[in-house]
């Protein structure tokens, strides 16, 4: 059964390379904050600053109200950073956002991969495991959803490239979709749209968002096998 307006947590969401575990603030928050401060460039295209992200991740109320299922990504090929992540090193996060059991749809987001784990097997395997859980039939251990959404800053070539690698289809471009936070450490420079005079938020650039989806018929029509192939690659 679906729970708390979201979806049930899977028993096991892992393969031989990574493991996805529910993000538990008492276990993960301290190390996540430490890595966020060490690698602020992780938030280059994120519409929140890292302090806002941390507050949201740590807030059960936020996660419940926004219908999030948030996971910590553990890289099983690297030793644990601390005793709270004994299955591997904390590599980042990934989530189901805006879970909609009634419409059998979900957004795949909060894909934050820290730089030491970027351009490795981590992101592709995390996304692949989430897609398998979302789109596989219930008899295969999945939720049997009809639609998975992927939203990306239109300038974030890495995110768009990853979506296309899994055969997400672009449905459109949401113009002026978000207000970005004030420039933080220079990482937001050039990552938003220029504002007109007298804009109510002059220090916050705008963002166009590319909208991609992967549906059950895409999945059954070859995207499932493609995903397995993407996950099996070493890089």
What does this structure look like?
The structure is a single chain. Strands 1-2-3-4-5-7-6 form a 7-stranded mixed β-sheet, sandwiched between helices. The protein has a single domain (18-232), classed as Gcn5-related N-acetyltransferase (GNAT) (Aminopeptidase), CATH 3.40.630. The chain has 235 residues and is of the alpha+beta class. The longest helix has 17 residues, at 216-232. It is globular. Helices cover 29% and strands 26% of the residues.
CATH superfamily: Gcn5-related N-acetyltransferase (GNAT)
Instruction: Tell me the distance between the termini.
Output: 36 Å
What is the strand arrangement across the widest sheet? 1-2-3-4-5-7-6
CATH-defined architecture: 3-Layer(aba) Sandwich
Radius of gyration: 17 Å
The CATH topology label is Aminopeptidase
Helix amount: 25-40%
- Return the structural class: alpha+beta
Number of strand segments: 7
What is the element string, with H for helices and E for strands?
A: EHHHEEEHEHEEH
Q: State mean pLDDT (0 to 100 scale).
A: 90
Short characterization:
With 235 residues, this protein is of the alpha+beta class. The protein has helices at residues 25-38, 50-58, 60-65, 122-135, 157-165, 216-232, and strands at residues 18-22, 69-75, 89-100, 105-113, 147-153, 169-179, 206-215.
What key phrases describe this protein's structure?
globular, 29% helix, seven-stranded mixed sheet, alpha+beta, 235 residues
């Amino acid at each position: 059964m679906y729970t708390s307006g979201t979806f049930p947590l899977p028993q096991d969401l892992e393969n031989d390379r990574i493991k996805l575990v529910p993000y538990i603030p008492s276990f993960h928050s301290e190390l996540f904050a430490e890595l966020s401060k060490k690698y602020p460039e992780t938030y280059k295209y994120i519409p929140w600053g890292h302090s806002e992200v941390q507050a949201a991740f740590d807030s059960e109320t936020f996660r419940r109200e926004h219908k999030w299922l948030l996971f910590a990504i553990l890289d099983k090929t690297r030793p644990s950073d601390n005793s709270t992540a004994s299955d591997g090193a904390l590599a980042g996060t990934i989530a189901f956002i805006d879970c909609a059991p009634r419409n059998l749809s979900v957004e795949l987001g909060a894909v934050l991969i820290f730089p030491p784990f970027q351009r490795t097997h981590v992101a592709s395997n995390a996304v692949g495991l989430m897609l398998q859980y979302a789109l596989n039939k219930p008899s295969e251990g999945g939720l049997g959803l009809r639609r998975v959404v992927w939203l990306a800053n239109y300038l974030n070539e890495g995110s768009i490239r990853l979506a296309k690698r899994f055969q997400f289809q672009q449905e459109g471009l949401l113009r002026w979709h978000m207000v970005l936070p004030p420039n933080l450490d220079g990482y937001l420079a050039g990552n938003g749209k220029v504002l007109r005079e007298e804009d109510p938020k002059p220090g916050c650039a705008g963002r166009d968002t590319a909208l991609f989806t992967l549906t059950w018929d895409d999945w059954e029509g070859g995207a499932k096998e493609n995903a397995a192939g993407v996950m099996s690659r070493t890089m």
